[in-house]
Amino acid sequence: MKHSLKFLAAFALGLPSISIADRPNFLLIVADDLTWRDHGYEGNQEVHTPNLDDLRGRSMRLTRMFTPATTCSPSRHALYTGLYCVRSGAYPNHTKVYKGTKSVFSHLKEAGYRVALQNKSHVGEKSSFPYEHIQGADDLSETERFMRRDEDQPWMLVYASNDPHGRWTRGPSHLYDPAKLTVPPYLHDNATTRELLAAYYAEVSQLDEQVGNLMELLNDCGAADNTLVMYVSEQGSSFPYGGKWSVYDNGIRASTLVYWPGKVEPGSNSDALVQYIDVVPTFLEAAGIDPDTVDVGCPDALGETGFDGRSFLNVLTGEKDTCREVVFAQHTTVGIHGYQEPYPMRAVRDARYKLILNLAPENRYTISGIHKGQPIESWQEDASTDPALASKVEWLFKRPGEELYDLEADEYEMNNLADDPQFAAVKRRLRQQLDEWMTRQGDKGIATELVATSRQGAQRQKKEAQRQQRKARQQKRKQASAS
Ligand SMILES: [Ca+2]
């Protein structure tokens, strides 16, 4: 009785086209700052990820999933809302969406699901994310109560680990001997890098253990057969060139697995270009809700109220092998801990090429994360006698206004083709797509960057105002002493 009433109530709202009993649960597992390459199943033979490797064997691996941002908070907002970051307002780090914006938690709750998020939140406004919060990542007792609460009601759980976010202090460090590791070619090999790499890998293994425990719990609860499990690696690690805080592929590509028994072919791959913003429409379609009819509560610059993302359910079921032609990303440095000057980035990538615009190339890119402390200080020390390393280090601080890469020939994005006339047509085409995207997003480039702290909490805004005052006083003193 309860069952059919729920179904009728949902049906009356015009929402799901499949009955409650047939709707899948969703378990979305989100790592934290994990470079896509650093999983056993992605080819890293030194990092221990047995549980993720096992899940991969039962899943489809998406080889071209991209986040539209490259820090925690805007990435997660995009993943949970189906909206790009400037449009939703959640584009700097430590940010929030505009009031009234809806998330996957809102949509699925309205459709009769119970919804929860475990551990790391990093999203706001609160009213846009109406989940039950489960504290901590390692204790699954409350998680189990949530899964078992009501057999007749479908659920969605976002399990957001803190691992392997720096500082790297957790996990089975005995598995890794710094001296014996292979340092990836995009990092500089020295003792400091090796120590940190071992510590980072230990946290990757900690995450792997959490994934193993979650999958075991799902089985114990009898939910494995009717749950769509998606794992995403979030964005790149906080190593310089590990990817975080950059729009290179190490930063924006997310290793992604989808496990859904009977629906998704085990051990398969898809090269379809997809983005985090496509995940919510995909979940909704899997729940029988037509994503094209959903009002996301936050219009774009043209006044449209639908998702930026589109469902790739037919990619998961093997009916199609494409979703979108290009993916987009932005990076906002204003408001990041330790930033000195705005250094905004915009990027567009198709299956082969990527165009990056650095909107303030006259500035120096300086934040705490990659430009201060270790390992960068040890790299700078080594660079004093190594010109090649010196130019690699300098690239972290200063780049030209345009970068163009052929990802097929140059997977680490080291060979900038932006000034090569052979690629002028490619550059023009990508530039046009990027401009159209920015217009639709209401993205005014540097002007948008300069008001980024207005999208952060009151404390960060106060800190920014104090910073600006300090800078003005310094400049005054400089001028006074010069005259
Ligand atoms: Ca992160």
Overall residue-averaged pLDDT value: 94
| Count of DSSP H/I helices | 16
**Range of strand content:** 5-15%
CATH topology of the largest domain: Alkaline Phosphatase, subunit A
CATH class placement of the largest domain: Alpha Beta
Query: What would you call the shape?
Result: globular
Measured distance between first and last alpha carbons: 85 Å
Radius of gyration: 23 Å
Can you count the beta strands?
13
Could you walk me through the main structural features you see in this protein, from its secondary elements to its overall organization?
There is one protein chain. The protein has helices spanning 2-12, 50-57, 72-81, 85-88, 104-110, 141-148, 191-220, 249-252, 279-286, 313-316, 368-371, 376-383, 387-395, 424-441, 446-450, 458-482, and strands spanning 25-30, 60-66, 114-119, 132-134, 155-160, 227-232, 253-259, 268-270, 274-275, 327-331, 345-349, 353-358, 402-406. Strands 1, 2, 3, 4, 5, 6, 7, 8 and 9 form a nine-stranded mixed β-sheet that branches. It is α/β, with parallel strands linked by helices. 48% of the residues are buried. Helix 12 packs antiparallel against helix 13. It has 16 helices and 13 strands. It is globular. It has three domains: 24-325, Alkaline Phosphatase, subunit A (3-Layer(aba) Sandwich); 345-455, Arylsulfatase, C-terminal domain; 456-483. Residues 1-14 have low confidence and may be disordered. Bound molecules: calcium ion.
Describe this structure in a few short sentences.
This protein is of the alpha/beta class. It folds into 3 domains: 24-325, 3-Layer(aba) Sandwich (Alkaline Phosphatase, subunit A), CATH 3.40.720; 345-455, Arylsulfatase, C-terminal domain; 456-483.
